[in-house]
Amino acid sequence: MHLNIPLATVSIAALASAATVPDNVKKFLDSVRSQGECTNKLQTGLTLSDSESDTDNTYSYCGDRQGVIYLQGTGGKLADMDVDCDGATVPIDGDTRCNASQDTIPETTFKDNVKQFGIDDLNAYIHSYVVFGNTGSKEGFVNFNPQEFGMEPLSVMAVVCGDQMFYGVWGDTNGDDQPRAAIGEASLSLATLCFGNGINGNAGHGEPDVLYIGFTGRDSVADASVNWKAGSAQEFQDSLATFGDRLIKNL
């Protein structure tokens, strides 16, 4: 879903204490911004919103840095964070914020991949996942498959939002149910970690200041050491930390 509606305020603190952004990630972020736009555009022509009114199609999947794929526009702009509520979407502790979503389907792209870990699908209330890649058959739709560039389903990703950094997994892809191919979307749990409980299925973070870093290679894929059966977003995030910290050190 890419409604691109900015929040006026964030009234409640995020579910977890923010992870400090490591120095090497700060340097990565600064270099990306100062460069303005990437030079190795694996795919370009994407937007932040999938509506026909969004005419800024200068966003790209970038391969400038070895071992990672990231998102960037022009003029130093990064991506936004719309909210995805696809998948199991079983409310936790009465949290029904996904009910506000106007564009939800009952499964994620990698539903079959997570079954090996004893769950039926990813749950947007618990699993911090990123929507990455674009798949469609409509005429003129911009497709991008990260797997063609070495990224694997359920790969761990790092997300820098403000002065915070959290981990997620590549858990879903953007379809062509809307006119344009868009980027910048994450599960409700990850969006809440970044921007607080004011986030819901119909209201995300519209500023292009979020850095998504996807790691390539088989050793980036989250495995059984991750707590897939976690009962909360905090538990799942904590279980990704050791895995993600290892990848970040090599950034």
TrEMBL record:
Q: Where in the cell is it found?
A: Secreted
EC top class, as a word: hydrolase
Phosphoprotein as UniProt keyword = no
Record's protein name: Endo-chitosanase
Taxonomic classification, please?
Eukaryota, Fungi, Dikarya, Ascomycota, Pezizomycotina
List where the protein spans the membrane.
none
User: What range does the record give for the signal peptide?
Assistant: 1-18
> What is this protein for, i.e. what is its function?
Chitosanase catalyzing the endo-type cleavage of chitosan, the deacylated form of chitin. Chitosanase may be crucial in the degradation of the deacetylated portion of chitin in the fungal cell wall.
EC number, as in UniProt: 3.2.1.132
The terms under GO molecular function for this entry are:
chitosanase activity
Pfam short name (any one): Glyco_hydro_75
Task: Reply yes or no: does the keyword Signal apply.
Answer: yes
